[in-house]
């Protein structure tokens, strides 16, 4: 863990250099926010790394000064760029975006033009959108599982070591089983029953029965 009073390219360069000196030879893919100089810092230490900018940060920064009345449409037009199945389609949609919005918000298309090469999917060797859809499905399943865990298991009585250990054990099983049904995560009926009894919902239902 590194702590710094401010975040800058110089700081990240020192962090990356230390990581390299500790024995990390290469980073396959790095997805970063829009911090100026961060991609260059990564490529200086790990020249073979495929650096891409986080699309969430890109869109958020692009629409920061767009009025709420137009933000939804601007975001939809930007999505046509970064969700395109091919590089040529993305470039075409970027030109359409520029024709439509440059009079009001010229900096948005300039931003996307300047970093466009980092956003193309060819670096990931994905053919079409199927691969991306699979990733999104897995991410959605993971989020649903984590939300379920937070709601039902993420709290226990402070100082009760037995409950804390049981909660940790259940949480570990769930975290290792993202995308699976509970019946697959807990192989036996007794394990599933104990997990249910430990949850607030289970406690409430059992108390009322």
Automatic annotation (TrEMBL):
Q: Which top-level group of life is the source organism from?
A: Bacteria
Question: InterPro entries, from UniProt?
Answer: TN5-like_N_sf, Transposase_mutator, Transposase_Tn5-like_N
The Transposase Tn5-like N-terminal domain sits at: 145-198
Q: State the Gene Ontology terms under molecular function.
A: DNA binding; transposase activity
The UniProt keywords, alphabetically, are: DNA recombination, DNA-binding, Transposable element, Transposition
What Pfam families would the database entry show? Tnp_DNA_bind, Transposase_mut
A GO BP term here is: DNA transposition
Q: In the UniProt record, does the keyword Methyltransferase occur?
A: no
Family listed? Belongs to the transposase mutator family.
As for what it does, the entry says:
Required for the transposition of the insertion element.
What protein name applies here?
Mutator family transposase
Q: Look up and give the organism this protein is from.
A: Pseudanabaena biceps PCC 7429
Lineage start: Bacteria, Bacillati, Cyanobacteriota, Cyanophyceae, Pseudanabaenales
